[in-house]
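Lecture notes, unit on binding sites. The following record was shown on slide 14. It pairs a sequence with zinc ion.
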Amino acid sequence: MPVIILAIESSCDDTAAAVIIDGRVVSNVLADQSIHAQYGGVVPELASRAHQANIVPVVDAALRQSGVSINQLSAIAFTRGPGLLGSLMVGVSFAKGLALSHGIPVIEVHHLQAHVLAQFADPPFPSFPFLCLLVSGGHTQIIRVTDHLALEVLGSTQDDAAGEAFDKAGKLLGLGYPAGPLIDQYARKGIVRFDFPHPQLPWYEYSFSGIKTAIRYFLERETEKDSGFIDAHLPDLCASIQHHIVEILLEKLVLASEQTGIRTVTIAGGVSANSQLRTRLAEIGAQKKWSTFVPAIAYSTDNAAMIGLTGYYKYLKGEFTGLDVKPLARIPLDG
Ligand code: KG4
Ligand code: ZN
């Protein structure tokens, strides 16, 4: 009998559902929420309401596209957290209701663990142990992965996440939200010629809040002298900011590889969609003789396929969840 998992993701501003059969992605549907762009960030209450409107059509489309009916499901996997509580609540309640009414077991999934396992959506797959640089809107971590379900966080950011650094820098440049993909696009036409202070933190710790402040002061200084400074230099500013963030991310990854002796290296999370990060990882990887693995863009940013893949590996180990489960805004990854 094949193992068929329906997966639901609603931790932030994307409502997503996927069907995974024997660890293979057969459908992966996503409704994103453009409503937040006008506010310059995700508005939790609006996100919850949009999830409520989207969840039925999204789950329906994922099932239809896979040709699977509800009665064939082995389990329903859902994101329990971390994320926005109101958003999580929609996905968790929906998963529980569907499971209860059809007598299907449920499997809770940690959103960040799922980002790491997005690597198993498409072959080739990395061999264990590997290092994963997890860079999303809310998290920046270097993780040692010794099995699908065994993770150890080696280092994290002390303040802002890398995605936040992109988004906040973009806001200062007058770009829309999320700014990461826009900075990536403008940077392609620019050259790196502005320098920002490099945070000095021990081991695999990151800090990105100082960069945001440095960029703000720099822009204030320059626009005082020339009010058209940002418009005149937007591509170069984007290229410089992107270069700065990417080099900081990779410097610690190199250190982690040297210290642990692990040369199989992956990246995950929304910021892993960044083209410069991908290019530099390939360059450094070739230099250091690493085996590098990068997920397809659709599996880098938030999606339900990664939730379903994690659900599949948990299913194989019999890791089911009670129907009294509640969403959690915060859950440690390796606690
Ligand atoms: O993993 P994700 O989709 O959601 C969270 O779990 O946070 O990550 C979203 C983050 C946002 O900060 C967004 O600006 C960033 O990923 N991002 C990028 C790119 N695409 C998405 N940052 C830089 N370059 C990109 N191409
Ligand atoms: Zn995410």
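Take-home: Strands lie at 4-9, 14-21, 24-32, 75-81, 106-110, 130-135, 140-147, 150-156, 264-268, 291-293.
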